[in-house]
Amino acid sequence: MSLSRPNRSAATLTATRVEPAPGSGICVTCLDGCEGPCEIGRSALKGREVIYPQPFGKITAGCDKDYPVDFSHFNIQGTCVGAVGMEADSDKATFPCVDCATELGGDGGIKLDFPVFTGAVGSTDIARINWEHVAVGAAISGIMVVAGENICGMDSNAEFKNGKIVKSPEMERRIKAFKQWYDGKGGVIIQANVEDTKLGVPEYAIQTLGAEIFELKWGQGAKDIGGEVKLHTLERALQLKERGYIVLPDPANPAVLNAFKAGGITEFERHSRLGMVTEEGFYKEVERLRKLGAKYVTLKTGAYRPADLARAIKFSSEAKIDLLTIDGAGGGTGMSPWRMMSEWGIPTVPLECLMYEMCRKLAAKGAYIPPIAVAGGLSLEDHLFKAMALGAPFVKAVCLGRAMLTAAMVGKTHGRLMQEKTELEGGNKEDGFLSLFATAAQLKERFGKDFSRLPAGAIGLYSYIDRLRQGLQQLMAGARKFALKHLERSDLVALTRDAADMSGIDYVMDSDKKEIERILG
């Protein structure tokens, strides 16, 4: 049984003519004369362009590989007895009373109204276009938003002096959009990779723009190489090559220039470099960021091999960083190589199980364990419950990448359609929002005259978080846990032997055995 679907995917706009062979993904009968709608056929015409999800700048893509164990292999344990964190009284222990707030940072100083934050909304077109909707939605929801890598380097209006960034209107816009609606909860995380560090982004973001939370990035669950975007003009390709990025094919090559003019090449790729992690170098960079003025320093790591996960946890413990985000394979992307995001790395559930064992060993020695967040293909309230319970007591939050963007984009789309309709009918935007969004009335009451300034996508994101909150409260109340800190691994049960063996969570038929014997006498 093949877990993958090679040679055809909606992500790459490819398909097969007839049912393909399971291993190769090639049609059982490959017909001479076929125009080649599969990845092989499209690659015969467009080569490397077919490596990436399409159309760039308009979509996010999620892995379609069926991993052997995922969160569906666990169920949430409910009970009809008692209440933890609340008086066991039916009139008091109601589900709306469940506390879903969390704290991050070594000092617990990063307060979140809800235990989620966005994935890295970075330099891709889809991230740039939707930033205001996502950032404002995060601000009014009391959660964090992540300004991803390469924002300054990709800013066409950025100004440099001696190879260092001195002004980036785009980064200024990113931070300002959140701060205008910030109400004391959540925050903006600024992320940096190799090129960002070379260009002086940490100095600029922290010292000039006042960024308080800064994130080092080792990778993400969608890819084990640096970030990439597509470029559609020769001028843009040359600009980014001059700024130190890897640009393919080389826009300075005369043969490439001729191919681009002829239409054989329709786009260029901008790539980031591979980070080279060393223990000493990591400690030095964390200390440097703190000396620059960063109040909180965090780390984002991807689905690398288990030894690299051990490095991330141990180094983060020693450096006493404020948040470690672990991103499992099977998540989403705006522009990762499609076969890479399907076929490399450790999926979210096994990665979290490895993380738990490593943290448990360090904690037993009295080591500092930073607040940990889990990412990788999560979207709904049961995912949040399971991710935090599986990694309890170490996991304090969940990073939602594609899900946040989806909510914001759908809100934006319907807001635009509604506004077009109201303009034709002589109505107004505010009344349209009130009829469109279930949460609009409460936002109107909260913000008054400023309500009309809210982007539609921000209201969509807020509505999505509102749904997640009630859904999580219901699940937690059913488990009789009335605050996140009370979640335990025993709140889960494994539905398969494989899931039980991987996680150490009781198999469903073995669960509660001692308690059963005590009850039955």
SSE topology:
Blueprint: H1 39-46, E1 61-62, E2 74-76, E3 102-104, E4 110-112, E5 116-121, H2 125-141, E6 144-147, H3 151-154, E7 159-161, E8 164-167, H4 169-179, E9 187-192, H5 194-198, H6 201-208, E10 213-217, E11 228-231, H7 234-242, E12 246-248, H8 254-262, E13 268-271, H9 279-292, E14 296-301, H10 306-319, E15 323-327, E16 332-333, H11 338-343, H12 348-364, E17 372-375, H13 381-390, E18 395-400, H14 402-425, H15 429-436, H16 440-447, H17 456-478, E19 492-494, H18 497-503, H19 513-520
Parallel strand pairs: 5-6, 5-18, 6-9, 9-10, 10-14, 14-15, 15-17, 17-18
Antiparallel strand pairs: 1-16, 2-19, 3-4, 7-8, 11-13, 12-13
Please, could you describe this protein's structure?
With 521 residues, the chain is of the alpha/beta class. It has 19 helices and 19 strands. Strand 14, helix 10 and strand 15 form a beta-alpha-beta unit. Helix 2 runs parallel beside helix 4. The longest helix has 24 residues. The chain is globular, with a radius of gyration of 24 Å. The two termini are 46 Å apart. The mean pLDDT is 95.
CATH topology of the largest domain: TIM Barrel
CATH superfamily of the largest domain: Aldolase class I
How many structural domains does the protein architecture include? Answer: 3
How confident overall, as mean pLDDT? 95
Q: Give the strand order of the largest sheet, numbering strands 1, 2, ... along the chain.
A: 5-6-9-10-14-15-17-18
Helix content: 40-55%
Structural class: alpha/beta
Unreliable runs: none
Beta-strand content bin: 5-15%
* Backbone shape: globular
Biggest β-sheet strands, sense, barrel: 8 strands, parallel, barrel
- Based on the coordinates given, report the CATH architecture of the largest domain: Alpha-Beta Barrel
Radius of gyration: 24 Å
Helical segment tally?
19
* CATH classification class of the largest domain: Alpha Beta
- Distance from N terminus to C terminus (CA atoms, Å) equals 46 Å
